[in-house]
Design brief:
The protein has about 325 residues and is an alpha/beta fold. The chain has 12 helices and 8 strands. The protein has 2 domains: about 170 residues, Rossmann fold, CATH 3.40.50.1400; about 130 residues, Rossmann fold (3-Layer(aba) Sandwich). Helix 5 links the parallel strand 3 and strand 4. Helix 4 packs across helix 5 and helix 9 packs parallel to helix 11. The radius of gyration is 21 Å and the shape is globular. It binds the ligand C=CC1=C(C)c2cc3[nH]c(cc4nc(cc5[nH]c(cc1n2)c(C)c5CCC(=O)O)C(CCC(=O)O)=C4C)c(C)c3C=C and fe (ii) ion (2 copies).
Length: about 325
């Protein structure tokens, strides 16, 4: 190398776990910053910006942050937002699992740490090949596609781009279904009651995205069916977290929890298979508000079963699906 040649690090492989994003703190200004970025994403709100931005900036960002900050305060941990803390723990636990040449890191689509910064870090560390792994079992344009968009946008600014692979959805992967079964059975065994019904609650989406060709609804249906088959019992599907006035996928989780006692279901367990990490939507919306709804409508016992998170079955699953996508990039173990 000539003396003025830029340094070239030893080639490595990067794995970037990506989740949705979360505020930096559980206060209204931080939530407002986060919501402004999140809800300005045209993959998330598919209303022309000329119509949507005045509603977002004039109404939503002046009302929702205070309410959402209060919700975040109820689930915030010493190490921060549950979503960020758990995603970080997943990356830490997986470090070293794929051999000495593979670096595992994590990023958030909205907020911090950002995808572009993490790709730049990986590249600077010598990663010439990077697997972008959006941790959404069910493909959705509002989650999977926008995470990949952000990665590709980061590459657009690079002279020397790394080669990129993206993690496919894994909604019907036997390893995913086995991990869910294992996790649900372990959680059920620790309860002091036997639930009459298990509800599988997925994040909702506007109903029209189904007609527009998003496979999310079908992926959720198949996951719920396969989980029911694996558990050998009925699993009732529902969709949570409705946002805005449009019609969303049904049945809604809150309406389902309110109706179940009237149908004779007095003891319920609920799991959220579409979330790879517990977050506001599971810990506050389901485990706190969902419980209140069920009990207020005549339910007697309620249990929220945790997400796969950094549990042993969760990490086994992530290890397997990531190792498969790295095939051909690294020497077999
Ligand atoms: C798991 C898949 C998710 C899909 C699909 C999804 C779609 C979607 N979400 C909103 C609006 C909001 N979601 C919010 C939080 C949130 N959403 C997901 C996942 C999916 N969203 C997660 C993991 C989280 C939790 C973030 C955390 O910090 O813990 C919020 C913010 C919270 C609040 O103010 O209520 C909003 C808003 C839309 C509009 C949408 C699809 C159109
Ligand atoms: Fe959401
Ligand atoms: Fe469908």
């Amino acid at each position: 190398m000539t003396p003025d040649h830029p340094p070239i690090p030893t080639p490595r492989i990067g794995v970037l776990l990506v989740n949705l994003g979360t505020p930096d703190a559980a206060d209204a200004p931080s939530v407002k910053r986060y919501l402004r970025e999140f809800l300005s994403d045209r993959r998330v709100v598919e209303i022309p910006p000329i119509v949507w931005q005045p509603i977002l900036r004039g109404i939503i960002l002046n009302t929702r942050p205070k309410k959402s900050a209060h919700a975040y305060q109820q689930v915030w941990r010493e190490d921060g937002s549950p979503l960020a803390a758990i995603t970080r723990a997943q990356a830490t636990a997986l470090a070293g699992s794929f051999g000495p040449d593979v670096t595992v890191d994590w990023a958030m689509r909205y907020g911090n740490p950002g995808i572009a910064a993490k790709i730049a870090d990986l590249k600077a560390a010598g990663c010439e090949r990077i697997l972008i792994a959006p941790l959404y079992p069910q493909y959705c344009a509002a989650t999977t596609a926008t995470a990949n968009d952000a990665a590709f946008a980061a590459l657009a600014a690079m002279r020397w781009q790394p080669a990129i692979r993206t993690l496919p959805p894994y909604y019907d992967d036997p390893a995913y279904i086995a991990a869910l079964k294992d996790s649900v059975e372990t959680a059920l065994a620790a309860l002091d009651f036997t639930p009459d019904t298990i509800v599988a609650s997925f994040h909702g989406m506007p109903q029209r995205t189904l007609a527009l060709g998003d496979p999310y609804h079908c992926h959720c249906q198949k996951t719920a069916r396969l989980l029911g088959e694996a558990l050998g019992r009925e699993v009732v599907i529902a969709f949570q977290s409705r946002f805005g006035r449009a019609k969303w996928l049904e049945p809604a989780t809150d309406a389902t929890l309110a109706a179940l006692p009237g149908r004779g279901v007095k003891r319920v367990a609920i799991v959220a298979p579409g979330f790879s990490a517990d977050c506001l939507e599971t810990l506050e919306e389901i485990a706190i508000r969902g419980r209140d709804t069920f009990l207020a409508n005549g339910g007697e016992t309620f249990a929220y079963l945790p997400c796969l998170n950094d549990s042993a079955p969760g990490l086994l699953l992530l290890g397997r699906i990531i190792a498969r996508e790295l095939e051909g990039w690294r020497a077999p173990a």
